[in-house]
Specification:
Helix content: 55-70%
Structural class: mainly alpha
Distance between the termini: 39 Å
Oligomer: single chain
Bound molecules: zinc ion
Low-confidence stretches: none
Mean pLDDT: 93
CATH topology: Arc Repressor Mutant, subunit A
Strand content: 5-15%
Strand order of the largest sheet: 2-4-3
CATH class: Mainly Alpha
CATH architecture: Orthogonal Bundle
Order of helices and strands: EHHHEEEHHEHHHH
Amino acid sequence: MNSSQSKTLVVPPQSYKSIGTKSEKFLQDFYRQGLTTPCRIPILEIVNDWPEFEEQTGFQLVAEELPPGVLGRTDFVNNLITIPPETCVAAKNGDGRARFTIAHEVGHVWLHNVFFKGCILENRILTANRACMKTYEDPDWQAEAFASALLMPSTTMATAISNGLSIADMQMLFQVSYKAAIKRTEIMKKFT
Ligand SMILES: [Zn+2]
């Protein structure tokens, strides 16, 4: 079976704009200064070390091995985010891709928890053929957009872009990968 025929989960559609608003709410709740100062958003610390995240969302992070090719997992039944131990160590050491993986799973919690909890209660999961699904209904597309907006908020990215910062500068400042910084810059120029 190729990927275009595989079934995938569908969630209510969201735009870059609505996801951006939700990532800003996350920062208001957990790391307000990230909205005004271009900086490294301490995503691992927020989820793993600070009590507010679990108090508000009910979710905990566990460092456990996952099957090959699975970067992270969010379990809506047990309220767990699972991240492989080596990814947690890499994120602690400032690796942009590892930090993005954690932010992606946090995106599933922040954007999809209420929806999936409802699906579980009603024993109803919406799926579609990947080929038929609209991009905006793909939970992974939404989680990627959330991670990008969370680690590089539109407010501080706009400042970085207007100040003529290079992609390498942004990488250092926000502690993200080169690829993530380029993609976020493109989205900012296109949608804001
Ligand atoms: Zn995902």
